[in-house]
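Teaching note: in complex prediction, the entire set of molecules is handled at once rather than each chain in isolation. The prompt given to students was simply: 'Predict the structure of this complex.' The entities are:
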Amino acid sequence: MATVTLREEVEGEALAANRAAAALTDDAVASALTLAAALVRERRPEILSANQADVEAATGRLDKGMLDRLRLDDARVDGIAEQVAAVGAIEPLEREIASWTLPNGLQVSERRIPIGTVGANFEARPNVALDVAGQLLKSLNSAVLRTGGAALRTVTVLVDDVLRPALDQAGLPPEAVGLVRSPDREGARVLVSMPERIPLVILRGSGPTTAELARLAAENGVRTLAHAEGGGVLYVHAQADRDRALAMTEAALDRLGVCNRLNLALVDRDAAGLLPELLGIFRDKGLEVRGTERAIASAGDGVLPHDRERLGYEWANEPERVATVTLDVVDDLDDALRIANEETSGLAAGIVTEDIDAANRFLDGYRGTAAYWHATTRFTDGFELTGAPETGINVDHVPGPRGPVTYRDLWLRQYRVVGDGTQMR
Amino acid sequence: MATVTLREEVEGEALAANRAAAALTDDAVASALTLAAALVRERRPEILSANQADVEAATGRLDKGMLDRLRLDDARVDGIAEQVAAVGAIEPLEREIASWTLPNGLQVSERRIPIGTVGANFEARPNVALDVAGQLLKSLNSAVLRTGGAALRTVTVLVDDVLRPALDQAGLPPEAVGLVRSPDREGARVLVSMPERIPLVILRGSGPTTAELARLAAENGVRTLAHAEGGGVLYVHAQADRDRALAMTEAALDRLGVCNRLNLALVDRDAAGLLPELLGIFRDKGLEVRGTERAIASAGDGVLPHDRERLGYEWANEPERVATVTLDVVDDLDDALRIANEETSGLAAGIVTEDIDAANRFLDGYRGTAAYWHATTRFTDGFELTGAPETGINVDHVPGPRGPVTYRDLWLRQYRVVGDGTQMR
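The expected output is the structure of the full assembly:
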């Protein structure tokens, strides 16, 4: 009997997804997602039973946070159903960007056409499977999903017993959602190695594993949307209002394990009077503060030396040291901008200042994906900013979807030209 | 004395361009380009003299077509001046895409911000240097240019004696346009190897050299906009009008060395009656016709076997066989679409048919960068379609600038968020 390799298996799922892509329409996808929401509830026993098996197998192997994200219960199953129904209900993508008639009579339109098949790699969180698959279908792209191995039993039920039957009931080819059916990490590497079948892969999550996958994808000619590193920056300007500065610092640290929380605080040396109170907030949150020499010189004993290569190093990526924040004391706004632009991932940065000119200089000079004045970087999220759930986050410095990516970004530009056959140039 | 390597030289130009980028404004760039147009005329003797040296050194090494593209004369110098003035005069890019207020009062805007520094690699054509540099500046990005070595003397004059003085006179840092100052091909490889300084490189031209550079760039984490392969497709449907089919075939072959000309003719078997007249046009144009077995079976002796790996192989890339066209006789519209989508570069394809449903099925089903009905693929050009000169062409199947790329595409998305400091989520 011939052995089917992992690569051949994934190629099979991808090829079937490729063939299914052309059949997707806005109306049928909306129906399929509504049906999927009902099926999530209907298949609750199977989902919970597969999840229990996943959790049992993972206990002792995954840390507490990961186990919690893996585990489903009744409320979470309801949440998954609501989420997929919500994606089904949002407005489909407008396909025409603009249209015009050339002097020679040609009618030109600039359009958004589907990409074809998009890959998605995500950690062992079952809810992400349905969420991402729903968003990819919403954009009229077919999908090949790859979950962290610990969630494979649950995600397999969500694909085979929920999404595929829902697609089928809506009159669509069930293969429009494919799955890498191996718990092995090699599955992720295979997913980013098929530029002809899967030209784009969303990489959820962050850290060195994501960075390595993004590199491998690039070598293979596959484009990824990813943020191996995130981290928010807050610049407390010389003209910062005390209450606003403290409130925004507090608000930017409401959670620690997320990429858009305050990771690097830049305090203007002319605002150094606020340092004791800022350090007090860090202390109250249980944070270890790491800083530059000049931060230690200004802030004193509360600050330990920063021991990572880049000042913007993202602590949320490191489970053992997640309760950490970095502090620097900067010379002026230009110094803050330089650090935000050159020594961080470029995810998001904000300024606190009562000086409107300074605020505008900061907003104009920052090159990251989201720039804030008197609002925290915690708003860096597709749903918060645009009302559409987020497929992923991308911090590339190149044209294309950047920052929070939603289904509205997952298209190819095409010019469509109609003449009467007489326009020869 | 320390030796400066090519890499260090290019890094120096890139670093200076990086630093210059923030100073670029729409008004000052428009002034600089107007000044550059005047300087082109003023420095005509130096330009022509450098060009004469380039042409003399290249004679015997480059083929006739390349020598012609390298050579400048009075009229071409005037053309360069007019071109850069025209880029100066077009509308600057609108920076705000959309803006809205969230229920919590946050003001959000989605904006186009500059990329920073963009690289451009182009063949030994002096006019391209000024044209591309003008477009990059117009997009408020600084530039590092790399020309085919044969044009380096001319391009050096255009950078050092035209563009840089023009920038300086307009109050901008002259280093906003950098140059790879080596005629060596290694310069192109260095240009695509600095993701931190030059995250995006426009690769003009096509063929294996471009494909290899694009691969190398991807390995280095540098994104490119390129079309290593092009080629237009024309599908003559069963319901094609004879006169339209012949006129469009004729019009699509007005030039042979261009990427958007008719490269692959797909004739429906129910339109095979038109084959003798189509072959007559090919013959009149002096074309060798290469075809599939079924094309040879239908069209007879006039067709030689296709001897390349992919049916869409682009003949315009091969100087010795540029006067070639590929012919296939297809079963139906689906067969034509499959070939256009799977066996060509995806640059452009058109249909000739009087059947509006067939036309729409073709336009909806084709996945390339430009789809035509009763208009030829020769219109696949930024200036023809959008009125803005073309910086390059990109045939990637991923979101971002695709098809003809103009200065309007060279930006990064940024969300800008302004609050009053009380919106905490």
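Point out the following to students. The first strand of chain A starts at residue 96 and ends at 101. Chain A has a mean pLDDT of 95.
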